[in-house]
Write a structure and sequence with these properties.
216 residues; mainly beta; Jelly Rolls; four-stranded antiparallel β-sheet; 3 helices; globular
């Protein structure tokens, strides 16, 4: 991690790469998870630049898809998916600043099978939606549950994939809008970017005092 010493976060950030107080944002402390990102939700935590936050996130299905029989069309109510922790206020962050978020590490939560792969009608890149209609019929809805730990993703008895976690959604608050957590935009949001894993820094625009960071 020698590159961190030359990063913008380290050389020009308020904290200059130092680590302050460690906070824990558990499910109990979070209480209500959020399905929109905006300036109207009550903050759950206030931190100083350089502080570390250990966050207990939920999966995109809010923990409702537990077995292969839990079809998303039956157990989910769109668009109430992709729950977010936060908002977290950062002392001193003002409109026009940039918030640097360093992902130190990630670990899977819950009992196996933790992982979920699903084909969902009218959702995703492989199915026609209201925005991307296809001439073909939707693919059949199916759920596959997968064992996951820090040693690998166990797709089948013969196939083990590397464990390479990343944050799906990371965002500061827009100045006035409340935006669905499924939506990526200039504020951040649901980017599903594999590069946003352990060891990465994401730079987010601050558009409102405190930044109001959401993560999930």
């Amino acid at each position: 991690m020698e590159w961190l010493k030359t990063s913008i976060m380290h050389t020009r950030g308020v904290a200059h790469g130092s680590v302050g107080t460690t906070h824990e944002l558990t499910e109990a402390k979070q209480g209500k998870y959020h399905f929109t990102i905006g300036p109207y939700t009550d903050p759950v935590l206030t931190i100083k630049p350089g502080d570390r936050v250990v966050v207990q996130t939920r999966d995109a299905f809010d923990g409702r898809v537990k077995t292969a029989q839990d079809l998303p069309s039956r157990v989910l109510t769109m668009p109430f998916v992709n729950p977010q922790n936060g908002p977290i206020m950062v002392e001193g962050a003002e409109k026009g600043d940039v918030l640097a978020v360093y992902i130190e590490s990630m670990a899977p939560r819950g009992d196996n099978p933790r992982g979920t792969c699903a084909m969902i009608p009218q959702f995703g890149a492989l199915s026609g939606t209201s925005l991307t209609a296809l001439l073909s019929d939707s693919l059949p809805e199916i759920v596959r549950k997968i064992d996951v730990d820090e040693d690998g993703v166990y797709w089948s008895p013969r196939v083990t994939l590397p464990y390479r976690p990343h944050i799906g959604t990371l965002s500061c608050s827009p100045e006035i809008d409340s935006i669905n957590t499924l939506t990526p935009d200039s504020h951040g949001g649901n980017m599903d970017l594999p590069d946003m894993g352990p060891g990465s820094i994401t730079y987010l625009p601050v558009r409102i005092a405190g930044g109001r960071l959401f993560i999930g």
